[in-house]
Backbone:
């Protein structure tokens, strides 16, 4: 088929006159050779058409209309269940600009390799063109993108996760800049082939060209690998933009905490994947009089406002949340959000009456269809839902969205939290002495690996600012960028920085801190530190809360456990030193001197 004969490519048939966009679409169609080109408009008609197609293909199951209105459950290929960090590349022109934490291939070489893979890769399929915007369309400088994909599941998910529809094309006009985001499942169909429910390729590439602000993804249909507005654009490409332009693109939730005096505090928090951002973003405080609202659960873009304060915007439009562990007691607001429907679940279990279930959800079932489409009973080996099973749901359905969540101005951040999953060593909450010390804390976050990416679950790795898998450039330059932003700011207006750990365990392996809604007690201490109304104890690692300073009223917990959760054990911290040393030598020459100074000071305090 020549490009002239690909339906949807006829001159004048596209809904835009943006020349560069039209040329790129034609070029990709010539390369990938789809059966047709379809421009996505994000309409309800499109949703129905594509969900009907995926139902017929066996990719998704329609859930019960009463229990899960307008909602579907997809099962992925068993080998396409998470982000693939080993197949993720930052193809900057110079290797040094990708840095030691990223896979790098020369961009010319990578383009050649992938061009070959893309040749004919959409045969037998429809090529969809999805114009989208990260963050409010009404922003001064709206962050536009266009994803080309041969996956209908991606089209449906992008409609939930990003702002799509005719207004995006209108904003693009005839010549506005946009990020080119190309995605192919890498599963062409020859005439007569029967399709599989979840097409993908065993060979995968999640590639970024930061200087060109371009994304090329191949071989995976899953989440962060395929919904290119999310990690690829809003973190990897945006972090490179932010470095050049003086702002921050971070793996952070945005939370609004309201005190009994009706004073609002905006808090941003960075935890690695599957370490509690969504849960904290939707927290239901357990302390009387305190309320929380949410603005985002995964990504924050932050820049200084005219008043010198740091303002955060959430670029996303939906939640792509971890299902296991989500339930009416751990996260009632997520459950309420899902109850409204319009949800695409992936790799959860389905009940006989077409409801969803996952490990940790209320209720038990004698029989389920598991995440691989197989019969499951409580006697079966393995979980019914994949540990990284997810729900994809519109943010607007969350009952506690802050009214200002869609405001292009963003919200002024009072505190930044860093955290990870640590069984030992790291106290429940520690305040940094100042910005640079806070950057040091962020730079040394360690966390046990989770199921959100391939690798050994449980192994501790350093994950600076929870951005290890999401940096679009050299980690040393990134840390320097954090230091410099602090230096350029009025210190009194900078957010205070805290290091939290909800995951510390006792000798008997039990969590020492109840977590979830009870984390509001920690947030209260943080707010009181901001106001200067509560004490803390100076330790070698920072200012740590004491059991007396935490509001533990009405909390049914053993005080010894709380003390243990807050303890700074100097021996444990001394054991951290070689591991931080190793991490910093891995970061290499670009490690900022400010960070090295903080490390020296810590070692002396521990000596
Ligand atoms: N023990 C304990 N577990 C928690 C807490 N908060 C969250 N979790 C668990 O951590 C897991 C992941 O939490 P999420 O909030 O979905 O993680 P996330 O950081 O949003 O993850 P990504 O979407 O992958 O970026 C779930 O299984 C939760 O039940 C807590 O305070 N204590
Ligand atoms: O990107 C994904 O697939 C999900 C996510 O939020 C993460 O892994 O941090
Ligand atoms: Mn995430």
Residues:
């Amino acid at each position: 088929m020549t490009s002239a004969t690909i339906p949807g490519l006829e001159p004048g048939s596209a809904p835009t006159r943006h020349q560069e966009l039209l040329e790129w679409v034609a070029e990709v169609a010539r390369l990938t050779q789809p059966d047709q080109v379809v421009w996505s408009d994000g309409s309800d008609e499109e949703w129905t058409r594509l969900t009907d197609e995926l139902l017929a293909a066996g990719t998704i199951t329609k859930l019960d209309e009463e229990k899960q209105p307008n909602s579907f459950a997809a099962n992925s290929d068993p080998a396409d269940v998470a982000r693939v960090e080993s197949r993720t590349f930052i193809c900057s022109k110079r290797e040094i600009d990708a840095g030691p934490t990223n896979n790098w291939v020369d961009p010319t070489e990578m383009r050649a390799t992938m061009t070959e893979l893309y040749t004919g890769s959409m045969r037998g399929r429809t090529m969809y063109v999805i114009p989208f915007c990260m963050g409010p369309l009404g922003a001064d400088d709206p962050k536009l993108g266009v994803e080309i994909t041969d996956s209908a599941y991606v089209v449906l998910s992008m409609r939930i996760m990003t702002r799509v529809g005719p207004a995006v094309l209108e904003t693009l006009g005839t010549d506005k800049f946009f990020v080119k985001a190309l995605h192919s499942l890498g599963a062409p169909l020859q005439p007569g082939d029967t399709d599989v429910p979840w097409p993908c390729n065993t060979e995968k590439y999640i590639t970024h060209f930061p200087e060109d602000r371009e994304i090329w993804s191949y071989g995976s249909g899953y989440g962060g690998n395929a919904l290119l507005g999310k990690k690829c654009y809003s973190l990897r490409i945006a972090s490179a933009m932010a470095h050049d332009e003086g702002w921050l693109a971070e793996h952070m939730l945005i939370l609004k905490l309201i005190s009994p005096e009706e004073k609002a505090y905006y808090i941003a928090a960075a935890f690695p994947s599957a370490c509690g951002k969504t849960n904290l973003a939707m927290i239901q405080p357990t302390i009387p009089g305190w309320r929380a609202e949410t603005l985002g659960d995964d990504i924050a873009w932050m820049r200084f406002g005219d008043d010198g304060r740091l303002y955060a915007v959430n670029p996303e439009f939906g939640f792509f949340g971890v299902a296991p562990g989500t339930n009416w007691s751990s996260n009632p607001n997520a459950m309420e959000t899902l109850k409204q429907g319009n949800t695409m679940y992936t790799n959860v279990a389905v009940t006989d009456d077409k409801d969803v279930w996952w490990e940790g959800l209320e209720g038990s079932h004698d029989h389920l269809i598991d995440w691989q489409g197989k019969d499951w009973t409580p006697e079966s080996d393995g979980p019914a839902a994949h540990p990284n099973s997810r729900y994809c749901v519109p943010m607007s359905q969350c009952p506690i969205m802050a009214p200002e969540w869609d405001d292009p101005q963003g919200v002024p951040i009072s505190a930044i939290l860093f955290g990870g999953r640590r069984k030992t060593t790291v106290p429940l909450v520690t305040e940094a002495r100042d910005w640079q010390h806070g950057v040091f804390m962020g730079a040394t976050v360690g966390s046990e690996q989770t199921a959100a990416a391939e690798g050994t679950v449980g192994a501790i790795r350093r994950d600076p600012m929870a951005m290890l898998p999401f940096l679009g450039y050299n980690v040393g330059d990134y840390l320097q960028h954090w230091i410099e932003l602090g230096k350029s700011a009025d210190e009194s207006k900078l957010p205070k920085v805290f290091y939290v750990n909800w995951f510390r365990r006792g000798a008997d392996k039990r969590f020492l801190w109840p977590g979830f809604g009870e984390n509001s007690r920690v947030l209260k201490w943080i707010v009181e530190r901001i106001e200067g109304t509560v004490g803390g104890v100076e330790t070698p690692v920072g200012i740590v809360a004491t059991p007396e300073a935490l509001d533990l009223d009405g909390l049914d917990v053993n005080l010894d456990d709380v003390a243990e959760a807050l303890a700074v054990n100097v021996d444990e911290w001394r054991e951290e030193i070689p591991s931080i040393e190793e991490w910093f030598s891995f970061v290499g020459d670009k490690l900022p001197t400010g960070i090295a100074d903080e490390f020296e000071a810590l070692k002396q305090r521990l000596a």
About this structure: The mean pLDDT is 97. Residues 83, 223-224, 230-231, 273, 298, 320, 452 surround oxaloacetate ion (ligand 2) (CB under 6 Å).
